[in-house]
Amino acid sequence: MIRRVWREDFRIIGYYTGLVTIGVGLLMVIPTVTSLVFREWASALDFAISVALTLLVGYVLALISRTKNIPGLTHAMVIAAGSWLVAVMLSGVPYMLSGHSKSFLDACFDTMSGYTTTGMFLLQDLDHISQGLNMWRHLLTYVGGQGIVVLALTFLIGSTGGAFKIMVGEGKEEKLEPNVRHIAVLIWRISLIYLGVGTVVLGLIAMANGIKPYLAFFHGAYIFMSAWSTGGFAPYSQNMLYYHSSAMEIASMVFFILGSFNFALHYAVWTGNRREILRNVEIVSFTITVLTTFSLVCLALMQRGVYPNAVALFRRGFFQLISGHTTTGQSNIYARTFVREWGPLGMLATTIAMAIGASAASTGGGFKGLRMGIIVKGIATDIRKLLSPERAVVTGHYHHLHDNTLTDSVVKGAAVIVVLYVLIYVVGAIVGMAYGYPMVDAFFESVSAGSNTGLSCGVTQVSMPTLLKIVYMLEMWMGRLEFLSVFTLFGFIATSFRSMRVRKAAV
């Protein structure tokens, strides 16, 4: 039986959601300053209004809900899912004020895509938006990769008993340090060090390709934030194709592969355990699935004679495949090229890669390599049990940071999440097909949204049906938070209404 919802439950949820909202408001200061630096006065005013509105909402929520009680697991899940929705809506205000979004739904679509590190966009005239708005959209995906709750934990919430539960609700369940605030700080330390290195490397490449020096390092920062967070955004509508630079593409690939790895793996390597790279089940799983899906892509492209030589095939085919597998979504081909040149087999291989996705507790989405490894090892263990004598004790193991015993509950937990991902992929595809899109296109786009990838075969456009936009947004949200916190939010809302009816009946 689900317990009743009391006023204190709303206070706890409201207070911590308010703190997260304040964090979003403070984050908006960065694009405001960017606009001022580039003398984009209209854009600076848009962000000043947005900062004021977001901080007002955050402070009001925190003040009217102020409490010293620690959030329980249910509160934490609701806070994680609910604060994302609040952040998405408030973060869409600068988009609307800029005039580059045709509707508030389109603005929210872009901010949901940014926070969930998906990379799909409906923004109009992307090639001519302000530097402030460009900074904001890339900052969204960079912060979204680390997690907006992680941001609030680092600077506002501090070390509380319920803080780790909130991080789990956001999909960051690896406990790198005993103190939850130390975990959040460590995640940001890793990300900021890479940000410095990535901005310099990509900025120098951009400068070598003819971009003005004062803009080159902004481009470097944008592309790095997009790559590291596996977000897929780029400053121009042509994405990576705009640069026509193999060096930019290779450097970007390095960063989005690194960004797709588990933060705990980064921590293990940074603390001297470099052997973990070779032993970790996620890396083994990732290597096998990349080789398998890229082989299918090569077969498809060679059959169709799309690219003239191995260099061109690698530069286009491998970049797209690995971008999809890490759920980054950066692209160096046009969207309709998937349909016109890659064909069903090439699109199927890329769809499978996107569906599998990156590592657990990383910036990426999809099933996750850890779950794929666990499920495969679970199947292998069951086969060994069937082939072994009845009295033999057969146990499975997998290595993730340390040696783990493969229990039925672990395999079941991984399988349930994979089934839920498959379900949202199928639902999104069915809605797309209902609106007349071909099955291959509909599945490709649905998997891209649900796995937080962002590659598009041309379905995602401003003109697509409103319901399809909403379905893709729900897929992004549920896929990024890995379902449980979203289901808890829905359950909490339903229980709240039930509790209200019970109280009214009692009166």
TrEMBL record:
Membrane topology, from the record: Multi-pass membrane protein
Keyword Membrane: yes
Main location: membrane
GO biological process: metal ion transport
Subcellular location: Cell membrane
Transmembrane segments: 12-38, 44-64, 76-97, 139-164, 185-208, 248-269, 281-302, 414-437, 477-497
UniProt-listed InterPro entries: Cat_transpt (IPR003445)
GO cellular component, one term: plasma membrane
UniProt-recorded Gene Ontology molecular function terms: monoatomic cation transmembrane transporter activity
Protein family according to the UniProt entry: Belongs to the TrkH potassium transport family.
Entries under PANTHER family matching the protein: TRK SYSTEM POTASSIUM UPTAKE PROTEIN TRKG-RELATED (PTHR32024)
Protein name: TrkH family potassium uptake protein
